């Protein structure tokens, strides 16, 4: 198994992040620095470590107001990134419609993003709706 796949499966780092660490010489296998991106390991017998300091991740929970886009597409109007320019390097996890308000998560953590959005994981979310007009049943 490739090191990047192993780290991804173990929720240590995304495949791209692992490859970056490898090219920086920050990963060792059995005590030897590995820079070959295709290096195969046996998770049962090989000892794989990250050496040194790795970049920290940023995750922000933000309550998005109505009429603010959660997209980076300019044509959609004012976005959460216009309101929070210090976090413009982050990506949204999930999406809220422009007309909706609620919690939105911004992050540069690929592992967290996969855990929250992957079909393999069951992260429950709850949606509540309020109507300004009375709803009536209309048969088809």
From TrEMBL:
GO terms for biological process: enzyme-directed rRNA pseudouridine synthesis. This is RNA-binding S4 domain-containing protein. One of its GO terms (molecular function) is RNA binding. InterPro entries: PsdUridine_synth_RsuA/RluB_CS (IPR018496), RsuA_PseudoU_synthase (IPR050343), S4_RNA-bd (IPR002942), S4_RNA-bd_sf (IPR036986), TruA/RsuA/RluB/E/F_N (IPR020094). The keyword GTP-binding does not apply. It holds the Pfam family S4. Residues 1-64 form the RNA-binding S4 domain. SUPFAM superfamilies: Alpha-L RNA-binding motif. It comes from the Bacteria. SMART domains: S4. Transmembrane segments: none annotated. Keywords: Isomerase, RNA-binding. Belongs to the pseudouridine synthase RsuA family.
């Amino acid at each position: 198994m490739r090191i990047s796949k192993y780290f991804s499966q173990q929720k240590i780092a995304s495949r791209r992040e692992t490859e970056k660490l490898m090219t920086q010489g920050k990963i060792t296998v059995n005590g030897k620095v590995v820079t070959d991106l295709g290096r195969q390991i046996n998770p049962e017998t090989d000892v794989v470590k990250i050496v040194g300091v790795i970049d920290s991740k940023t995750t922000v929970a933000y309550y998005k107001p109505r009429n603010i886009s959660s997209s980076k597409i300019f044509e959609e109007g004012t976005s959460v990134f216009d309101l929070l320019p210090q976090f413009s390097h982050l990506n949204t996890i999930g999406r809220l419609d422009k007309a909706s308000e609620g919690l939105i998560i911004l992050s540069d953590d690929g592992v967290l993003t996969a855990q929250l959005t992957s079909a393999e994981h069951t992260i429950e979310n709850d949606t509540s709706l309020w109507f300004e007009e009375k709803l009536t049943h209309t048969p088809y």
